[in-house]
Automatic annotation (TrEMBL):
InterPro entries assigned to the protein according to its UniProt record, in alphabetical order: Acyl_CoA_acyltransferase (IPR016181), Bact_Acetyltransf (IPR050832), GNAT_dom (IPR000182)
Protein name: GNAT family N-acetyltransferase
Lineage top rank: taxon: Bacteria
A Pfam family assignment: Acetyltransf_1
KW Acyltransferase (keyword) present: yes
Keywords from the UniProt entry: Acyltransferase, Transferase
Keyword set includes Transferase: yes
Record-annotated N-acetyltransferase domain positions: 153-312
Molecular function terms, GO-annotated: acyltransferase activity, transferring groups other than amino-acyl groups
Length: 312
């Protein structure tokens, strides 16, 4: 089956299950990326196998493996699960040639449309687990803001003097998420966060807000405005994309309304800027963030299946 046909059939199949998914074009090989194609009877699959190396001191390093082997895929034909199984087998052969066996700083990652159930069993059989989600909050599904304000909670824009607070909240969030397999606890995380957050706080209008509960700073939210989200905007069919980078609430303030107040404020900011959708990442197994975000009007858009290490 020709790559153009695979891409077209794949796009049509996904469009039928989720109108917010972007279209597909045939994969092209590039630096650090190869195209894998397989056939499985009357079905076929194409995959772009790439390798992403992350510098240990980069701002995003605390939230991912330092070496990511990624497979973007397209499935066509009446039996997409069989095509996916064949593609994963072919990718495993490729990984054994390029990835170091047993290295816990490597991860094999397969992004899949969350509503595309075909091949779920095959993903599990190849050792993958659904660990991370890109969730979307479409404008037409914005939930009502509810009562104006939360008793005892004041939201204000963060300033340079809040650095210690936001670093502490960021570290608490990182440590909690590390339980669910999406990040590694490693040395230097605090320094990386402090440098990145200090740069953000020194912007003329920092994209962070602090929640004070009866005068105590116990929560923060960090956003990226439309125009700053080119790195992720191709994951959704929308013109203006906002991104909620993180929301953290100190353990002692959970269930106090701080998180909901911060989310409502962030959505108000992005709504005023005309965002068609807001995206965010969350750990799929996190028992706090998953129900919280879906109560705020989000739903899964992409599920990132991961195997770590990449080759066992």
């Amino acid at each position: 089956m020709h790559s153009d046909v695979i891409a077209t059939e794949h796009a049509a199949r996904l469009a039928a299950v989720d109108s917010l998914l972007p279209g597909s074009s045939p994969f092209e090989a590039a630096e650090n990326a190869v195209v894998l194609e397989v056939a499985a009877g009357d079905s076929a699959a194409s995959g772009l196998a790439s390798r992403i190396q992350v510098d240990q001191d980069a701002p995003n390093a605390p939230w991912r493996a330092l070496t990511e082997h990624r497979l973007d895929l397209q499935l066509a034909g009446p039996h997409p699960a069989a095509a996916l199984d064949a593609l994963l087998t072919r990718w495993d052969e490729h990984l054994r040639a390029v990835a170091e066996r047993g290295d816990t700083e490597t991860a094999a990652i397969v992004p899949r449309a969350s509503r595309d159930a075909a091949g779920t069993r095959e993903m599990l059989h190849h050792g993958f687990a659904p660990l991370r989600v890109i969730a979307v909050r479409p404008a037409e599904r914005m939930v009502p803001a509810g009562p104006r304000g939360t008793p005892g909670v004041k939201i204000r824009r963060a300033e340079p003097g809040d650095l210690e607070t936001v670093v502490s909240l960021g570290l608490e969030l990182h440590s909690f998420d590390a339980q669910y397999g999406t990040v590694n606890l490693r040395q230097g995380v605090e320094d990386i966060m402090a440098k990145d957050l200090a740069e953000q706080l020194n912007r003329p209008e920092p994209p962070l807000w602090i929640a004070e509960l009866y005068g105590r700073p116990l929560g923060m939210v960090n956003v990226q405005h439309p125009g700053e989200t080119g790195w992720i905007s191709d994951r959704v069919s929308a013109d203006r994309v906002g991104y909620l980078s993180s929301l953290a609430v100190a353990k002692e303030a959970r269930s106090s309304g701080v998180g909901t107040a911060l989310a409502t404020h962030a959505h108000h900011v992005l709504d005023e800027e005309g965002a068609d959708v807001v995206l965010l990442h969350h750990a799929a197994a996190n028992p706090l963030s998953t129900p919280f975000w879906y109560a705020q009007g989000y739903r899964p858009l992409w599920t990132y299946w991961q195997r770590r290490p990449a080759v066992r």
